[in-house]
Amino acid sequence: MDCDKCGGAAVTHIAYSGLHLCEGCFSESVETRVRQRVREDGLLDESATPENPDTWVVGLSGGKDSVVLTRVLHDTFQEDSRVELVGLTIHEGIEGYRDASVEACRELVADLGLKHELVAYEEEFGVRMDDVATEDPEGMAPCAYCGVFRRDVLERYAEQLDADKLLTGHNLDDEAQTALMNFLEGDPAQIAKHFDASLGSFDDREAQETFVPRAKPLRDIPEKEVALYAHLNDLPAHITECPHASEAYRGEIADLLRELEENHPGTRHSIMAGYEQLAEAAADSLRGGADDLGDCDRCGAPTDRDVCRKCYLVDAVGGDVPAR
Ligand code: SF4
Ligand code: ZN
Could you tell me the CATH number of the domain that includes residue 177? Predict the structure, then answer.
């Protein structure tokens, strides 16, 4: 089959657009969509200068998503010194899993010449995820602890690194799954949170004083295309699954979406188009302002309880609460 853009040999067929694309045209189409998303989200602060650049901290796990995101952003802005990229990698303490992906991160940042910060749960909280998963004092899935610890590290280190934006590599499948899960769980507050966590904080000055604004520039790119981009561009992505991965419900939703997308190409895009509007409306009507948050009695982090969820869980697993 020929590439619909240049007539070369096609390597893929994109069902939702109907296009057959060769290696070069496919990579270009991924890069164009990421750049378009960066523009549409207004990610680059127009007042940034080479002397006072916009600092974007990228959550870099070494998996395909964050590796592709880092590489595309680097290629886009390498000639533009108004943007400074910093990779932030978290080591959860998971034997036989994280060491290899940390290596992938090191290889990538060395190759691209980026600043890189590596943070381990063991040093931050005095615990390793392998032990948390075994002891499990709260009777929860390992990811429920791990997600809270990760969010805390990302937010704290984004602040310490003077980040203007915190970027993560969530792709279209991740986002459509979360949207559908939030919807099926019938929880508008969660839908509002999803909006605030990725789409709505750039214009909200009040929120910006409390949190570093977040962005997900890969959110228009399906997972399969991210994987193909990493493969075709020979990126050092690590693909093993975490041994504690346990989000069974998300797996069911992923299967459902896969089937829907196969029968009705474009389903994920249309879910997100409607969901983003819905989420914005939910955020407008349900959001308490940043003013409604107090400080955690233990660590000082913004929270709507006396002690934040992170401090509660760190205590439960017998760890140490880090100073903010
Ligand atoms: Fe943590 Fe769960 Fe991700 Fe493993 S799969 S790194 S336990 S959040
Ligand atoms: Zn706390």
Answer: 3.40.50.620
The reply to whether 235 falls in a domain is yes
In a domain, 324, yes or no: no
Residues lining ligand 1, Cβ inside 6 A = 92, 129, 142-143, 146-147, 242, 244-245
- CB < 8 Å & 24+ apart, contacts of 20-29: 23/232, 26/225, 26/228, 26/229, 26/232, 27/229, 27/232, 27/233
Which ligand has an atom closest to residue 305 CA? 2
Q: Is residue 14 part of a domain?
A: no
CA of 118 to the centre of ligand 1 (A): 17
How many other C-beta atoms lie within 10 A of the C-beta of residue 170? 24
pTM value > 0.85: yes
| CA nearest ligand 1 atom 5, residue | 245
Q: How far apart are CA 312 and CA 191, in angstroms?
A: 24
Cα–Cα distance list, 286 to 105, 176, 282 (Å): 38, 22, 6
Q: Would 13 be classed as within a structural domain? A: no
For the CA of 129, the nearest atom of ligand 1: 7
The domain in which residue 270 lies consists of: 47-316
pLDDT at 127 (0 to 100):
96
Say if residue 35 is exposed, middle or buried (CB neighbours under 10 Å; 0-12, 13-18, 19+). Answer: middle
Ligand 2 is an ion; residues with CB less than 5 A from it: 296, 298-299, 301, 308, 311
pLDDT at res. 197: 64
Q: Which residues of the chain have pLDDT under 50?
A: none
- 16 burial via Cβ count (<10 Å: 0-12, 13-18, 19+): middle
Give the model's pLDDT for residue 238. Answer: 84
Count of domains forming the chain: 1
CA distances from 71 to 12, 26, 36, 199 (A): 21, 16, 16, 22
